[in-house]
Amino acid sequence: MAGFKTGFAVGAAIVAIPAFFLLEKVASEPTRFPGKTVSIMDGYVSVGGSIVGDERREDERPVNNMVEMKCRKSDMTCSFLSVDELSAGHIGWPSTDTLTVRSWSDRDLVADSLPGEGLEQPCNYYEVRVLFETEDVTYTRIPNPAADQARCSELFGTDNSIRQWRIDDGKGVYGYIPGDG
Q: Domain of life here (predicted)?
């Protein structure tokens, strides 16, 4: 009977140890959000994907996220939805915004989140540009000159600079290589 118990213990260890490391690996992988999609029709544009950047340091790039933008030329607005990964396997609440389309031509669409006069002004706003021919989508975070600069320096320090990223395939897409997006 002792041989059975020893064999069972050794067998359990052989299965448990690799399983533990596999679970740890899965738990530390980024959330897999859908890849980039762009749909351009007459008077309607839809974009989905993740905001990604090419900065060398991971902490300078956007967090793992998913965004979806739907624009209608008839009312010159876009609905913008974003969800961020807070930590491995945990995502935050969806955030929604309404963007104003500043221009819509045969070549591109430009929309931004800058609030109108008389409304509370955030430290930053963002602009999304969709190039129709190439389906490239840029996401630019821009410091807001109308915001309370003292409050913004408390939040961002002196490095509240323009950041330009893109909406593309993010960390959760198959074949993602750390440092490439």
A: Bacteria
Domain ranges of the chain: 1-30, 37-168
List all residues 6 or more positions away from 160 whose beta carbon is below 8 Å from its beta carbon.
123, 124, 143, 152, 153
Q: Which pTM was predicted?
A: 0.77
For the segment(s) 37-168, the CATH number from 1.10.10, 3.40.1170, 2.40.160, 1.10.150 is 2.40.160
DSSP state of 146: T
Question: pLDDT tens track of the chain, all 181 residues?
Answer: 556 666 555 555 565 555 555 445 445 677 888 899 999 999 999 999 999 988 888 777 888 899 999 999 999 999 999 999 988 878 899 999 999 999 999 999 999 999 877 778 899 999 999 999 999 999 999 999 888 888 888 887 777 788 899 999 987 665 555 555 4
